[in-house]
Design a protein that fits this description.
binds ligand PBG, single chain, two-stranded antiparallel sheet, ten-stranded mixed β-sheet, 11 helices
């Protein structure tokens, strides 16, 4: 049936009608907020390239966690900036590491807030790469035991979920085996399965002080032109025991989210990364786009593409604006 009997504008006449027929929604419970933990106390350190994002010392995390929980946001993902870095990233698997202690603080303050621990060495290595270096390249198999040790240490400190973001081959299997033999067979793995070597991580690397001192991450993170390869990464991670999958960044990779949604039935996460966040803020500051609408449209687009949940630095401000 077509015009004049069909008039698609009938369902767009007003806000209430549009809400009645809305296909996709984003609620605070769909969102995860990233937190950067610092050593020391009384520290609230704003990230210059990420408006509103503040790096916090452990003692500041309790109030922050309560606020996030009260907003109805589903959970947090933790990143750490250690007091000292070394070639093997030992801060990542120190039992009194900055994220380990942060997890404990958050668990006490807001027990129902989901605590996801990012698992990677790049914030902890003095060279800034995500694994152990050998002749200028990251040695895959030597990195695996360190990631496994880090995951066990984070689970012991109270992580509800561990999320490896290093992109080593075989890391999910190594982590699953280690968690199981340490008695953490109930700790799920959210794999950053399709993580691309992206320009959009720029502001995060300021925040996490994790820019590689030499070279780049292209020998381990994925090459942006490749979509089929992302399906191979995801299938491999599921085979190794991943419980949930992630695509990262989000907006330039919406096709990957859609393909993943059609192919895999596990919970699917998207990471709206630092550059996506800062870019919207920068354009809004110049008056070129409306921030609130831009944020809403970007989140809804990521959900419509197929993501169940979104890790985003906008989680708090989006939740604060209330129901829509
Ligand atoms: C660590 C990691 C990165 C991000 C999340 N985990 C950075 C990187 O690979 O350089 C990026 C997050 C963001 O940009 O918001 N491996």
């Amino acid at each position: 049936m077509s015009f004049p009997r069909t008039r698609l504008r009938r369902l767009r006449t007003g806000r209430a009608m549009r809400q009645l027929t809305q296909e996709t929604r984003v609620t605070p419970a769909d969102l995860i907020y990233p937190l950067f933990c610092l050593p020391g106390s009384g520290v609230r350190d704003p990230v210059a390239s990420m408006p509103g994002v503040v790096r916090l010392s452990i003692d500041q995390l309790a109030d922050e966690a309560k606020e996030i929980a009260d907003l109805g946001v589903a959970g947090v993902i933790l990143f750490g900036i250690p007091a000292a870095k070394d070639s093997r990233g030992s801060g990542a698997y120190a039992d009194d590491g900055v994220v380990q202690r942060g997890l404990e603080a958050i668990a006490k303050a807001a027990p129902d807030l989901i605590r996801i621990a990012d698992v990677c060495l790049c914030e902890y290595t003095d060279h800034g790469h995500c694994g152990v270096l050998e002749h200028g390249d990251v040695n895959n198999d030597e990195t695996l035991p360190l990631l496994a040790q880090s995951s066990v240490s984070l689970a012991r400190a109270g992580a509800d979920v561990v999320a490896p973001s290093d992109m080593m081959d075989g890391r999910v299997g190594a982590i699953r085996t280690a968690l199981d033999s340490a008695g953490f067979e109930r700790c799920p793995i959210l794999s950053y399965a399709a993580k691309y070597a992206s320009a959009f991580y720029g502001p995060f690397r300021d925040a996490a002080e994790s820019t590689p001192s030499e070279g780049d991450r292209r020998s381990y993170q994925m090459d942006p032109p490749n979509g089929r390869e992302a399906m191979l990464e995801m299938a491999a991670d599921l085979e190794e025991g991943a419980d949930m999958l992630m695509v990262k960044p989000a907006m330039p990779y919406l096709d990957i989210l859609r393909r993943a949604r059609e192919r895999f039935d596990v919970p699917l996460f998207a990471y709206q990364v630092s550059g996506e966040f800062s870019m919207l803020h920068a354009a809004a500051e110049r008056g070129w786009i409306d921030l609130e609408r831009g944020v809403e449209e970007s989140l809804i687009g990521i959900r419509r593409a197929g993501a169940d949940r979104i890790i985003t630095y906008f989680a708090k401000e989006y939740a604060r604006r209330g129901a829509r």
